[in-house]
Amino acid sequence: MAAAALLSSVPLTARPVVATLSHSAAAAHAAALREQGFTVLADPVVEASLVSKAAVEVASTLDGLLDEVGEAGFDPLDQQYLFHEVCYRQEGRWDVRRPSANEAPAWAEVCETARAAAVAPILAALQGSESGEVETLMSGAIVSRAAPAQRPHADADLEQYEIGEEDDTYRTFSCFVPLVDLHGSGGDGTQFWPGSHVSAAAAEAAWERATADGWEELLELSPGAAGAEAPACRAGGVVLYDSRTIHGGLPSRGRTRAIAYLIVGTGGAQDSNFPPERIRDGLDPDEFPYWDELDFVQ
Ligand SMILES: O=C(O)CCC(=O)C(=O)O
């Protein structure tokens, strides 16, 4: 179903929302989330001017952090590091923790708007009267700059599959709000393996297929060849996925690609993607590997 058809055209004035979801649209997104593990609001939910301001805040936050990482004695581009403020897990792809709303007001507003306009109504439709509090667990941005394809993975741990099979409310979800247009399988967005979230066995099978020998070369030639879907989404739209779904970032296409995100949990499920150690904690830079020393990067 085209995402545009899932949006009603009722303008809201209280928040910088372009359109809000009707009940039937929320139900359709909930069904996609339940069956495929992800759903997409391909047209903007957040106003373009707010998206542009958030993109500037994300870029300046990352640049400031890279300076700090360098001042602390690390190589901000060539070493792998995981800090409370920023994780550099894979070359060219940073996970930046969102600073306070005072420091990055537009970024915070983008996340809050997506939560109110998309996440809350879709999760209410998904979990109905069983739904308890939708807790925001984390908020940040993924920025890729000349990144290779990301190894497909799930964000959930094994416990989440196990408890989640017994308890339909025990879930975490990521809400991505791209700050640039994502152009689908030929672009530099995120690809998902539909249906891989339903059990640990399904996730493992999809992961095996997705990371079979030569997966990176295959992806460069033909994204989606390994059974994945890479949805297009305009800047300010939403890609909402169940953390158990196998997914991975596509290679960068000669530009900076920023995606603001929030992670929410229901039924008491928790998630944290940043460690407690801070850039200025005095860790020894010599203990951190360089990219060319690493054979396997998840
Ligand atoms: O960069 C992307 O498109 C996805 C990022 C992601 O899944 C991650 O960093 O875990």
Please sum up the structure shown:
With 298 residues, the protein is of the alpha+beta class.
Topology:
Layout (H helix, E strand, L loop, with lengths): L22 H14 L1 E4 L6 H24 L9 E2 L3 E5 L2 E5 L7 H23 L7 E11 L12 H9 L4 E8 L3 E2 L6 E3 L7 H11 L4 H7 L10 E2 L4 E5 L4 E3 L6 E11 L32
Helix pairs in contact: 1-3, 2-3
Bound molecules: 2-oxoglutaric acid.
Helix/strand structural class: alpha+beta
Helix share bin: 25-40%
Give the overall average pLDDT. Answer: 90
Instruction: Give the CATH topology.
Output: Jelly Rolls
- What fraction strand? 15-25%
Looking at this protein, list some descriptive labels.
298 residues, alpha+beta, Jelly Rolls, 8-stranded antiparallel sheet, two-stranded antiparallel sheet, 6 helices, 30% helix, disordered N terminus, binds 2-oxoglutaric acid
